[in-house]
Amino acid sequence: MPVTTSGSRSILICSGKGGVGKTTLTANLGIALARQGMRTAVLDADFGLRNLDLLLGLENRIVYTAQEVLSGNCRLDQALVKHKLEPNLALLPAGNPRMLEWLKPEDMQTIVGMLRESFDIVLIDCPAGIEDGFKNAAGAAEEAIVITTPEVSAVRDADRVIGLLNTRGIKPIQLVLNRVRPKMMANQEMLAVDDVTDILALPLLGLVLEDEQVIVSTNRGEPLTLNGSGSPAAQAYNNIARRVCGEDVPLIDPAKVRRGLRAKLGRLMQTKIF
Amino acid sequence: MTLRDFINKLLGRQPASATTAKQRLQLVLAHDRSDLNPELLEQMRREILEVVSRYVEIDIEEGDVSLETEDRVTALVANLPIRRTKPLPQQESKPDGDVPGEADPVWTASQA
Q1: Burial tier of B105 (Cβ tally within 10 Å: 0-12, 13-18, 19+)
Q2: Fewer Cβ close by (within 10 Å): the C or N end of chain A?
Q3: CA A41 to CA A46: how far, in whole Å?
Q4: Residue B97 domain-assigned?
């Protein structure tokens, strides 16, 4: 479990594989942390394919980006986009994809350093892959949250990323398992939670159940954690935020989500006999 | 092995796909983490078998040298069933009708 320090924290949100839920986690966790009173900045470090603005519903309010801040064409506070409904949250938008040609790890460190002066937590939404974009983002973070789904390709890519984070001395590194389908897990047609945590050898920060409401909320540009939704994914994101702040919140057990005789039989069939 | 795996095995069915997924992942990650390419591993396997077969007669067909991984630590695991131990090379000249080890193809190959 992370220890809340008096200083500001910078947390990288990464996965290796694309499309497993990095940006959705960044948006929802950012809002949830802000609602808990943490001054939170979310930094879109995916300059090639930026989307964090869209998931937060802030795409029409961008004037300046990280690019203008770095080149000295505007002040940091001019580029930051404050969320209207959640003033504790601000987005620093990603710059132009052409920035990738000259951006260096030191530039990301500069940006994150500036953000940490006025925010309690800086969440860095990392691009997919393990190339320069990842290295630039990872160089500016002290902690990391690795998000994966219970699929072989996502777990394999997460493993590569964890190896790279370990060599950089980033810690703690914690795991979020996304798109969990309790029924498939009960039928052993999906990697079990323990399988994934055993393989990746990371502490579990949260489990997010597959939830259609995530799609609805991204359609609207209103993260689930914003409107007090009680949907399974919203609960999971809120719990993750509380754990990030050092609170001890028990994890849900996917096997207990389902009730009835079939669920009981499923649990019996998962008994390890040897 | 879970109860479901056991029942599947009894009925001659395929194992549950999660079990297959875990096994495949463990294998591929062992290789990813060690950064050993398959040719190098194969060369190492041949050399290990050669050294071991100098001392004991092993079942080459059953012999297996592979990478396994647990808790992010990768181990080289050799599983080499021993048929029988061999006489030491200097004892070889002693007349001993009971030891057919000399005739074994593996043994002669490593001696050559």
Answers
A1: exposed
A2: C
A3: 15
A4: no
pLDDT band at B48 (very low <50, low <70, confident <90, very high): confident
- Which pLDDT does position B24 carry in this prediction? 93
List CB contacts (< 8 A) between A273 and chain B.
Answer: 1-3, 6
Q: Which of A189, A201, A272 sits opposite B17 (nearest CB)?
A: A189
pLDDT of residue A66: 93
Instruction: Look at residue B48 and tell me if it is in a domain.
Output: yes
Domain ranges of chain A: 9-269
Using the Cβ of B2 and the Cβ atoms of chain A, whether some distance falls under 8 Å is answered with yes
ipTM: 0.81
Q: Does B26 touch chain A (CB under 8 A)?
A: yes
> How many domains does chain B divide into?
1
Contact B75, B68 (CB under 8 A): yes
Its domain, for residue B40, covers: 3-86
pLDDT at A164 over 90: yes
Question: Does B104 score more than 50 pLDDT?
Answer: no
Most B-contacting residue of A155, A173, A183, A199 (CB-CB within 10 A), to test interface:
A199
Find the length of chain B: 112
- Strand ranges for B1-112 from DSSP E: 56-58, 64-70, 73-79, 82-85
Instruction: Say what the pLDDT of residue B89 is.
Output: 61
In Å, how far is B69's CA from the nearest CA of chain A?
8
**Structural contact between residues B28 and A156, judged by C-beta atoms closer than 8 angstroms:** yes
Task: Give the residue with greater pLDDT, A186 vs A3.
Answer: A186
R_g over Cα of chain A: 19
Q: Hey, is the C-beta of B9 within 8 angstroms of any chain A C-beta?
A: no
From 3.30.200.20, 3.40.190.10, 3.40.50.300, 3.30.430.20, which CATH number describes the A9-269 domain?
3.40.50.300
Minimum-distance CB partner of A270 among B2, B17, B29? B2
- Residue to mutate among B4, B27, B70, with most A CBs inside 10 A, is B4
Query: Which residue of chain A has the CA closest to B4?
Result: A269
